[in-house]
Design a protein that fits this description.
AlkZ-like, DNA-binding, DNA binding, 373 residues, Winged helix DNA-binding domain-containing protein
Length: 373
């Protein structure tokens, strides 16, 4: 079994993530094969700004009709190529009840108490969503409407809303099966029917699901089956059943038995050396890798990068996460506060300020400032 140094594994990931800025426009970015998460304010835009060689603007994603924003992996919103949605939806069909319950994540126990098969819960909710969403509607309006159509056990009392409504994670997982997307750039969250939506299928597609695992390993490998299961939200035992072992090679990274697609071995063995600075937003695909101890071995630093509430962005310097950053808007100015774990070289500080200018422009700010904590 080949032993891959940690630094080499990270250099490989950085190249596969497009952080060398080899792509000039969004649909050329290979990372879209897996999806680009957009869970926080401008997350996807800032992830693009760190990767594309051309300027990114607030309209770069919203106005691109080749993309669709849907609740996909783990029920999180991701941008995907529209042409790839049919296969994606097939891959998101749970393999069995155990898999469906695992994808419910923090609401797993409540939904297991319904007395109904978790797969049936998912698709009964999806049918209600398909019936309700025939035009753009706010998330709140959709939630209220489908709550009236589904059994009471699929809903809960929400103290924050002061109302009883469908479980949040259940709604997120069911929406794409109901042929519904999110309207990009809309506040409050707005749902709309997918153009040309196909008939709903409830049949598992193990091969499509296995390809998602393989793509995770391409961009965030070498990694373990558990890492891949953490990304998809699937039950670990279900991932083991569909593990595409005939297309993978086992290697060892930082003492762990991990896997990488066999057709990526050449890229893993000789990745380009990471150079320069990138500002990665919170929930960037690179820091979404499940093996956090490989990304940031120092536990104290890892706690600064991945906060339980309100994680900052990460400062990537020559392939290592060497600090964190936050922003605060003040009028027409976007102010960056950077906390470096170690003193940065003058060139790195200058490069960071250039990256801050790109990030500010992506969010529509012409003026910016960088404060060093």
């Amino acid at each position: 079994m080949p032993d891959i140094p940690r630094e080499q594994a990270l250099a490989y990931r950085i190249a596969e993530h497009g952080l060398h800025r080899s792509a000039g426009e969004v649909t050329e970015l290979p990372l879209l094969d897996l999806g680009l998460q957009d869970s926080m304010r401008d997350t996807a835009l800032l992830s693009l700004a760190a990767r594309l060689s051309t300027p990114v603007t607030p309209e770069s994603l919203v106005d691109d009709d080749r993309l669709a924003l849907v609740w996909s992996h783990r029920g999180a919103p991701h941008f995907h190529r529209r042409t790839e949605l049919p296969e994606l939806v097939s891959a998101l069909v749970p393999l069995n009840d155990q898999d469906a319950l695992s994808r419910m994540m923090w609401q797993k126990k409540e939904l297991s108490d319904t007395g109904v098969s978790a797969v049936d819960v998912l698709f009964e909710t999806a049918r209600a969503i398909r019936k309700v969403v025939t035009r753009p509607m706010t998330k709140g309006a959709v939630s209220a409407a489908i709550t009236k159509l589904i059994p009471p056990s699929f809903s809960r009392w929400c103290r924050g809303c002061g109302a009883t409504h469908v479980h949040e994670q259940l709604m997120r997982l069911a929406t794409v099966h109901g042929g519904v997307r999110l309207e990009a750039g809309q506040t409050p969250a707005t749902l709309a029917p997918l153009e040309g939506r196909e008939r709903m299928s409830t049949s598992p597609a193990p091969e499509a699901a296995a390809r998602v695992l393989e793509r995770y390993l391409r961009f965030n490998g070498p990694a373990t089956p558990g890492d891949a299961a953490g990304f998809t939200g699937s039950a670990r035992s279900c991932v083991t059943e569909i593990w595409p072992s005939d297309r993978l090679t086992e290697v060892r990274v930082a003492g762990r038995r991990t896997f990488v697609p066999t057709d990526q071995l050449t890229a893993l063995e000789n990745p380009p050396t990471p150079r320069g600075v990138r500002l990665l937003p919170p929930l960037d695909p690179f820091t979404q890798g499940r093996d956090k101890a490989v990304l940031v071995p120092d536990k104290a630093r890892a706690k600064e990068v991945w906060k339980i509430i309100g994680s900052p962005g990460a400062v990537l310097v020559d392939g290592e996460i060497l600090g964190v950053w936050r922003t605060k808007a003040s009028g027409k100015r976007l102010r960056f506060t950077v906390t470096a774990f170690d003193p940065l070289r003058g060139k790195d500080r200058a490069d960071l300020e250039a990256e801050a200018e790109r990030a500010a422009a992506a969010r529509g700010f012409r003026d910016f400032a960088v404060d060093w904590a």
